[in-house]
Structures are given as C-alpha cells and as structure tokens.
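Q: Sequence in, structure out?
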Amino acid sequence: MATQTELAAWVREAVATVRVTDMHTHLFPPSFSALQVSGADHVLTYHYLIAEAMRVGQLSSTDFWDLSAPSQADWIWEQLFEKTTPLSEAALGVVQIAQAFGVNLRTEKLAGLRAKLEPTATDTYANHVLDLAGVDSVVMTNDPFDEIERRYWEQGTPRNRRFHAALRLDVLLNDWPRAQVYLSNTGYHVGPELGEVDMAEVRRFLKDWVAKIKPVYFAFSAPDTFAFPEDTVRGRLLSDAILPVCREQRLPLALMIGVRRQVNPHLRSAGDSTAKASMLPIEALARRYPENKFLVTFLAREDQHELAVTARKFGNVMPFGCWWFLNTETLVSEISNMRLELIGPTFVIQHSDARVLEHVIYKWRRARKVATAVLTNKYQQLQEAGWDLTREDVDRDVNQLFSQNFWDFVQR
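A: Exactly. Output:
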C-alpha cells in the first residue's frame, strides 16, 4: 500500500501533467480575428476586475466607459494593484498570468505585461498559451445570431484544430422576436405563432448549423426563473425543436442556469448577478427525455447539492464545473468534495469560462491546485479504509475528471 507521501506525489504529478479539455469558454481562434480576445489590456478590463475596481476608485461608470481600452486598463491597474493588494480571485489571476510569462508585476508593472502578451494572437501564440495552461483543447461559445461571427462560418474560415464549436441558443430561447426576424430574413419560413410548419423550419435551421460548425453540444444560458415544462415559446422550442434535433444528432444540451442579468446596468457586462434556481426543470427534462443528454451547471452555491443528487438519479445528467462567481478556491473545493462524495469521479471537475485567451493559464492553475488537495484527501481516506490504491487508479480518475468524462458523455 502506498505511503501518504507516495500517494500525494502520485496525485500531484497526475494533476500537474493531465491534458485538459476546457469544455466551456468564450474564446475564439486567431482566424476569427474580430472576435478573438487576448493581450494585457483585455486581461485588465475583464468584467470581474471592472466591478472590483469600481469599489475602490472614485470614477463614475459613465466616465469609465468613455475611456479608451488602454486607459481603462491603466485605471483598473491603479485601483487594484497600486492602491490595494490583488487578493481577489481575478486580481490574483493577473499576477499568475504575469508569472507564467516571466513578468514581475511589482517591478515591471502593467507595461511589462503589455510587452509580453500579444493583443493580436497568432496560432503560434494561442498554442503557446494553451500549452502553458496544460489545455489540450477548448470548446467555444458560438452564436449563430451574431452577425460578425456568422460571416466567419459562412465563409468557411479555417480554425485552429484545438478550438471546438458549441452552438449557443440564447437568442432563440430568450428573444424569439429577434430570432424570428433573423430566421425569416435568411430563408427560414417562420411566423410568430410557431405552428408545426414553423417548428419544422426551426429544426431545419438547427440542423443546417450543426452541419456548418459541427458542434460538440448545444448550449443555453438560462435565468433563475427557468421552468420546464411550460406552455411558452421557450418551452415549445425546447420540446418540439431543440430536443428532437439533439436526439437525432446525438448532441447533449448544456444548461447553465441561474444568471440574473443587469442588476446594475451601469456596469454593463460586469452588472450581472446570480440567484437560486429550481432543480425541477432538470428533473423533468431528464425524466421525460431519457434519450437526451444534459450537461448542467448552476450559478448559485445553494443549487449544487440538489444538482449532485439529481445526477445520482439520472445517468443522462452530467454536472460540470464551477461557473462564474463559484470559480474561487473555497467554493470549487467545497463543491468538488461534495460531488465526489455523492457521485464519485463521474462529473466534469471544471471549465474556465475564459473570455480572454490568457485567462486559461490562471484558471487552470487554480483548478489543478484545488483538485490536488481534494483528491489527495479523498484517496488517503480510501486507503485508510483498506483500499490498496494504485498509481493507475489515480491517473485514470484524474484523466476522467479533467477530460475523458466530458468526451465519453458527448460521444456516447
């Protein structure tokens, strides 16, 4: 039986070297140049840091948004790295990104970071960043209703093979009037009432986009009020269009639930918040549609226990990651421990939700640190109970949690 020192070393080495599948991001490949986001100014103007800097500085939100991006970055730097100590998850992340690029922020400051990070990424730079993070591939968030993005897909723009697609359905499900106008203008014969003919056209639209971008899943970010079943446009689109196409194409539907939009609209992208949501829609979906697969995450801490219990009852539900405000060491540790205790290593331990390319570096360094501590403790308990753990057990579990569980789920 391995000693505690040997066991800790096995876990540390397995987690440090595992190649990650980052199964939910907002990243784009360099070839999608108008959408690709990287560089020091974008790292500093991350919406987390905007909200935090507003707590420190005296600048009004109107004056902040009137600044150029470099000036915004300068101001945020002053508030969070000069006036205060960067202890928050997002501010510490900037320091970790700098460290990965060999920049000492105490002496080189923001200028040093600007000199090392590329604001216009090439494939070589993107690959370098992913390798620094130990990320094998990422899954994007792809919106067929975004005019700029749509052009890249329609032109057949080649992309870095490490960037997989996911078809985002937020406009379709949250703003049907806008979606209906777009569909009507692009050759799909749909009216506002969504009769059988209209629904068939929505299904045709979805299948056309599956063929175009080859997504690994469909995705929908839902408010805390999300309900199912319900006799609404959203409910009918789910039951009569989206879920049938998911079954036909063998694609999961990823549900990200609990966003409360624009509680402070003056902060724009930094103004969204969270609220507790109901687990009843997930139970109903999993029970009514056993042939469908559902990747599920909730934004509120209070929903995590119910989600793990629901996953115990339904094999077609896969919990994934600790999203947005949950992506802190404290909460990732708590939630990962709880999931291991209820469903074993049968979930996706984390995703980055990265909006800036370099974010994958600190987000995955943080995730590895937490996973190492959580798994070491669990394995030690297992050995104390008399289970003779092997190095192969550890390697297998770590690979499943960081990558293989996701691929097994989407491809089965």
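The first strand starts at residue 20 and ends at 22.
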